[in-house]
Fold this sequence. Notes:
Blueprint: H1 3-13, E1 18-25, E2 28-40, H2 45-57, E3 64-75, H3 77-92, E4 96-100, H4 104-113, E5 120-121, E6 138-141, E7 148-151, E8 155-158, E9 165-168, E10 174-176
Parallel strand pairs: 2-3, 3-4, 4-5
Antiparallel strand pairs: 1-2, 6-7, 8-9, 9-10
Helix pairs in contact: 1-2, 2-3
The protein binds zinc ion.
Amino acid sequence: MAEGDSILSDFNERGMGAVLGSSRLAGDAAGILLTIQGSLETGNAGQFQDAVVGLIEGRQPLKTVIVDLSQVTYISSMGVGALATISKLVAERQGVFKLQGVSPRMRELFRQLGFLEIFQMADEPDSSGTAPASVFPLTMACRRCGKPLQVPRPGRFRCRSCGAVFGVDAAGAKRWD
Ligand SMILES: [Zn+2]
């Protein structure tokens, strides 16, 4: 068993009111996915933070840390504070910290505590890093006249200079009539 996982086992064996799990992120060998089941509150937030910090410190290099909150039944402001502390530590180590499975109630708590802006959500389309980068707006040269063209989105367009008609698909591939 890896050292990091034994840190989580210690937390789990002490009956902290929550169960922590860790697994590797698919496609990112240096990334970890942490799952929390149960409640994260005043009584266990400190130990939770210690366990996760121990896990992170045992991983070098560290890339992405995603914490899945979908099985959290209750989170207090102390629990949110622990997540914020972990987020800061990951950022200091040039890693990316994200939350997933955040319920509307949790989101409202994050907002009230002023943490909504600092937490990146892994399962929202506008979060950076997970969605493939768009190729648009695309700058290209007209195949017929060579003038530069700015393509704002996928579709069919006509060169303003020479009238050549072309299509661009979502991946940025061009097709000339
Ligand atoms: Zn042209």
